[in-house]
Design brief:
It is a single chain. About 30% of the residues lie in helices and about 20% in strands. It is globular and about 75 Å long. By secondary structure, it is an alpha+beta fold. The protein folds into two domains: about 1-145, Creatine Amidinohydrolase, Chain A, domain 1; about 155-410, Creatine Amidinohydrolase (Alpha-Beta Complex), CATH 3.90.230. Strand 3 (about 55), helix 3 (about 60-65) and strand 4 (about 70-75) form a beta-alpha-beta unit. The N and C termini lie far apart (about 55 Å). The protein contains eleven helices and 21 strands. The strands form seven sheets. A six-stranded mixed sheet has the order 4-3-2-1-5-6. Strands 10-11-13-21 form a four-stranded mixed sheet. The chain has a three-stranded antiparallel sheet with strand order 16-19-20.
């Protein structure tokens, strides 16, 4: 949580944090600027045991003020004059501006670097600043860095936003299922009013429309994949693929708040009209693995231990896993889950590769998402919920409740009998 940041900085021996870039697609800036809608020219400095200071362009002064932080306008440092004095050398002028900012805010010691900049420019700028500011040691942290460690756990204000996001997102999920259920069937496929096959792309576009109407963004797309594509975990689906009875549809929906903000992450697997026995059995096993993982999820549990429990279960059912068959594309082919927040994939990972010391903490927000995949047999199954480890009980709480039914019933007068 953000309240842990000064302690984490002390543990990492960091005297200050320097963040660059706008709030959009920039979790570090969003987190420290309290979500204020500031743009790409924004800078932020947070000294240990002090509130962050935001440096923003004048056009964004009102938006910057919404952060609740001290705001300094960049015009104060007269970058155009510095550029002129440096004969247009952007790097030298930028370094002089930052030197002035660090001096005015009395920044010294070890400073961590975060945010969004082109990597080559960041490297060149860091080298330039080291020459100009020998009293400062600039640090590039490995992941998870100090901000990512703070974001491992969510406070009540963050959870309030995530709960609201979940309710909105699940409205889209419910509408999607109803959309599928309402279509007529011809020759084993869903068809539109004009008799054309309803395709994966038709549904994807409608989901995007509903998302926009509800003020949600899908910046990294979503997964709505059927048949063989459902058997490849991150296949987005083929837009022209018709939706057929008895095929699995994997719907992995991970929208975020509009304008950049918190993500929600949720997956269900559906079959239209009926499910073949082999799919029913696999779905039942995925649900059993899900329930087993949730029953084992507790504060203090090792992150890799949860993956081992699910691997043990699937292997006991005769399924391949990446533990028994590294690189397999059939069976259980991925890790159990991950953190979610200002990025759709945050630390920790519930994987066998997690470090021994990585353990579930109170306040963590995680996905639980076991799955089974058989692309050459034309199906895949994944079930995913978003859970929060309650600080008082240490037990998981599902954020956004939705049933896990496999089959979407179709109107009896229109549904064809399974062949």
């Amino acid at each position: 949580m953000k309240s842990d940041l000064d302690r984490l900085m002390a543990e990492r021996d960091l005297d200050a944090l320097f963040v660059s870039g706008g709030v959009r697609d920039n979790p570090a800036m969003h987190y420290l600027a309290n979500g204020a809608k500031v743009g790409e020219y924004t800078l932020l400095i947070k000294k240990r045991a002090a509130e962050p200071v935001l440096i923003a362009i004048g056009m964004e002064r009102d938006e910057a003020a919404k952060s609740g932080l001290q705001v300094i306008e960049r015009s104060r440092y007269d970058l155009p004059r510095l550029l002129k004095e440096e004969s247009g050398n952007q790097l030298a002028a930028h370094a002089r501006m930052l030197t002035a900012i660090f001096g005015e805010l009395n920044v010294s010691g070890k400073v961590g670097l975060y945010g969004r900049e082109e990597q080559g420019f960041t490297l060149a700028l860091a080298n330039e600043l080291r020459a100009r500011l020998p009293e400062i040691t600039f640090i590039g942290e490995p992941t998870p860095n100090v901000l990512q460690l703070a974001q491992l756990t969510k406070d009540t204000d963050e959870l309030m936003r995530i709960r609201a996001l979940a309710a909105t997102a699940l409205g889209v999920v419910a509408d999607t299922r109803q959309l599928l259920a309402a279509h007529a069937v011809e020759k084993g496929r869903l068809v539109t009013e004009n008799g054309a096959p309803l395709t994966v792309g038709d549904v994807q576009r409608q989901i995007h429309r509903w998302s926009v109407e509800r003020n949600l963004e899908n910046p990294e797309g979503m997964i709505f994949a059927s048949g063989r594509d459902a058997g490849v975990p991150h296949s987005r689906g083929q837009e022209d693929a018709p939706l057929s009875l008895g095929e699995t549809i994997v719907f992995d929906y991970f929208p975020r708040e509009a304008g950049g903000g918190y993500f929600y992450d949720f997956t269900r697997t559906w079959c239209l009209g009926h499910a073949p026995p082999v799919i029913e059995q696999a779905h039942e096993q995925v649900l059993a693995a899900f329930d087993l993982a949730l029953s084992e999820l507790r504060v203090g549990q090792s992150c890799r231990g949860l993956q081992r429990v699910v691997n043990d279960y699937f292997e006991g059912q005769g399924r391949r896993t990446t533990r028994t068959h590294p690189g397999t594309t059939e069976g259980y082919v991925h890790s159990l889950g991950h953190g979610v927040g200002l990025s759709v994939h945050e630390h920790p990972r519930l994987a066998e590769t997690a470090a021994p010391e990585e353990r579930v903490q109170a306040g963590m927000a995680l996905t639980i998402e076991p799955g089974l995949y058989y692309p050459e047999d034309g199906f895949g199954i994944r079930v995913e919920d978003y859970v929060w480890l309650h600080p008082a009980s240490g037990l998981p709480e599902t954020i956004g409740v939705f049933d896990k039914e496999l089959v979407i019933p179709l109107c009896a007068s229109r549904e064809e009998s399974p062949s």
